[in-house]
């Protein structure tokens, strides 16, 4: 299993030569193992649905189930436009979905009347709840009970322009975990994991990306941080041991009285 973690990232389905170069240059991701250890910087709970009437402009990320009523297009300049979709839930309450970029794609790919689950950060514009550049999935293709907490990954502006945003990295890590069918090799001794009630390395490296809840995420973090600290401490002990062996000095079989006296005077500082 450790051998597959050394596999070139180019050969992971969905990567290829161009994405390989981008991942290498921007994030230093060269192998499967590098991607596995590129941890999310945050997670968002995707198991709950909100009603539009519950939303306020100061809430974090939320998701709402409903359908698009209509689209409107507003010219911003000769080359730019703002696309707004009016979105309603089962209660009949309406909010707006806004695209400053990608509006043409939204109009072509999102169908009026079809049920979607919208995910994003709400704000208030012109007295109405609005979500800018939402993530949208067909409601019949999304199993909320299985989603748990969604990971978010740091990416650079260059990556975003090339389509390698957080969602793209998320898809790659899901693919990677599917490829890694066999359990990952354990690196800590059994007595330590048992005594401290730690997750296995295999479970921790999977749950750090896709926990079902905050408790699982915290347990994965504790396991991985403790492992890192454990090996830092081992390296310090190994370095100290090497230094002692290297600078042991010469052991005299017999020491004269004058040498002992000289050593005492030197130690006392009376030289």
SSE layout:
Elements: H1 16-27, H2 32-36, E1 42-45, E2 62-75, E3 81-88, E4 94-99, H3 103-109, E5 115-120, E6 122-125, E7 128-132, E8 135-138, H4 144-147, E9 149-152, H5 157-161, H6 166-179, H7 190-195, H8 201-207, H9 214-246, H10 257-268
Parallel strand pairs: 4-7
Antiparallel strand pairs: 1-9, 2-3, 2-5, 3-4, 5-8, 6-7
Could you describe the 3D structure shown?
The chain is of the alpha+beta class and 271 residues long. The chain has helices spanning 16-27, 32-36, 103-109, 144-147, 157-161, 166-179, 190-195, 201-207, 214-246, 257-268, and strands spanning 42-45, 62-75, 81-88, 94-99, 115-120, 122-125, 128-132, 135-138, 149-152. A hairpin with a 5-residue loop joins strand 2 and strand 3. Helix 8 (201-207) crosses helix 9 (214-246). The longest helix is centred in the C-terminal third of the chain and has 33 residues, at 214-246. The protein is elongated.
